[in-house]
Design brief:
By secondary structure, the protein is mostly helical. It folds into 3 domains: 9-68, no CATH class; 102-202; 204-275, no CATH class. 53% of the residues lie in helices and 4% in strands. It contains 12 helices and 4 strands. The chain has a two-stranded parallel sheet. Strands 2-3 form a two-stranded antiparallel ribbon. The longest helix has 26 residues, at 48-73. The chain is globular and about 70 Å long. It starts with 8 loop residues before the first helix and ends in a 15-residue tail after the last helix. Residues 71-97 have low confidence and may be disordered.
Length: 278
């Protein structure tokens, strides 16, 4: 696929414009207005990031359509598609990534990191029933739009798409108001599904502490910053707030020793690699 730029944007976007996501259609309308339908690109210099984002997203859309064509036209795929309608093929659906297909668990799964779909849903859940800045909601909408277009949500895509559909209803007021309250309305089932997902896993308590420690990497990090981390780390370790099964428990103990030495008479430099972190 050709690289999308000012010279070929309008030629490339025309055949697929009707199928583009709402956000890309709106961006296209703005580009058409700013450039007088490609006649004058002088506004590009004022906000190149806006234009380049649209160019990159369009490239992704075109590449995906090009890769899909052989599969849809291949005669070998037709028998497979027909078989998926048979009862015999239904059991694999239990492995789908939708929240409804996942059994409820008593205890959340402890993980080192959560998938991007989980992160987007968690951000959205923080808006329910609260008065929030419209720009925050718009930013989340654009993040979701970008991840969907680039096909970067392998887990919980169904729920994220439902959130995307819900946010589309708020686009107009989001652009005109400063604050807004997001309500589930008829989408209460979506709220329940999201809550089930958020309760299904949680990051090990050690991970945020490890990230803060990595952030100290350097010859002489500020003493106040080190003291705050040491205070938090010591409180969690002394009160048993870090799960004994946490795989990084011993690393946290080694980190505490390093922080104490840094603040003590030795003033030993902090070395992230010394506790096995990169």
């Amino acid at each position: 696929m050709p690289q999308i730029n000012q010279n070929n944007y309008f030629d490339q976007v025309s055949p697929v414009l009707a199928t583009l996501p709402v956000a890309m259609k709106e961006a296209h309308a703005s580009i058409a207005e700013f450039t007088q339908n490609g006649a004058d690109w002088s506004d590009y210099a004022l906000d190149p990031e806006f234009f380049d984002t649209q160019f990159n997203l369009l490239s992704t859309v075109l590449a995906k359509k090009a890769s899909d064509k052989p599969r849809t036209q291949s005669p070998k795929k037709k028998p497979v598609a027909a078989k998926t309608d048979q009862p015999k093929s239904k059991p694999p659906k239990t492995n789908a990534t939708s929240a409804k297909d996942k059994p409820k668990t008593q205890e959340p799964e402890q993980v080192r990191s959560v998938p991007v779909g989980y992160t987007l849903l968690k951000s959205f859940s923080g808006f329910f029933g609260k008065k929030v800045e419209c720009k925050r909601v718009l930013n989340l909408y654009r993040r979701i739009e970008k991840h969907l277009v680039e096909d970067r949500i392998p887990v919980y895509r169904d729920e994220v798409e439902r959130v995307h559909t819900l946010l589309i209803q708020y686009l107009e007021p989001l652009k005109k108001q400063e604050f807004i309250t997001i309500t589930p309305g008829p989408n209460s089932e979506l709220v329940e599904d999201i809550q089930q997902i958020l309760e299904s896993m949680e990051v090990w308590d050690s991970i945020p502490l490890l990230k803060r420690f990595i952030g100290l990497k350097g010859d002489r990090p500020p003493k106040e910053k080190v003291e705050r981390l040491l205070k938090t780390l010591s409180r969690k370790l002394d009160k048993g707030l870090i799960d004994k099964e946490d795989p990084y428990l011993n690393k946290l103990k080694a980190i505490r020793k390093q922080l104490e030495e840094y603040l003590g008479e030795k003033a030993a430099p902090i070395a992230v690699d010394s506790v096995g972190l990169k």
